[in-house]
Design goal:
single chain; 142 residues; mainly alpha
Length: 142
Amino acid sequence: MMRMGHTTPRRRLAIVAVCLLCLGAAAQSSQRALASYTTTQAEAGAQTYQDVCASCHKSDLAGASDTPPLAGDTFLGMWGGRAATELFDYVNAAMPPAGRKPDADALMDVVAYILRKNKMPSGSSRLDATAPGIIAPAPGAR
């Protein structure tokens, strides 16, 4: 008969294994959370996008012969599953390649607009350079 509070080495190993699985699942789910942006942020980004980005990427984000689309399957094939902050880092470093460069806050708003155009749901938290979250459309939105 086993006394209360006494566990066998095999039982302890099983408990540790279950705990590690739970921790791994929790870490993976937090890494897979969607990026968050606000509707207001995306609306501000829409204006900046039209003023600065649409001349190359087109007003509908479809891209042109020498510029990639910023919405749809091609965009999601490149950026889907990646952190939204990676997209911001790229946009902040390289876009636009010429002309007036908006400040980092305005470019973050543009990224929020791009997320909205890729059918990601808005949330209550603004997208910022330290916010975790991935790029992915809402389930069933594609």
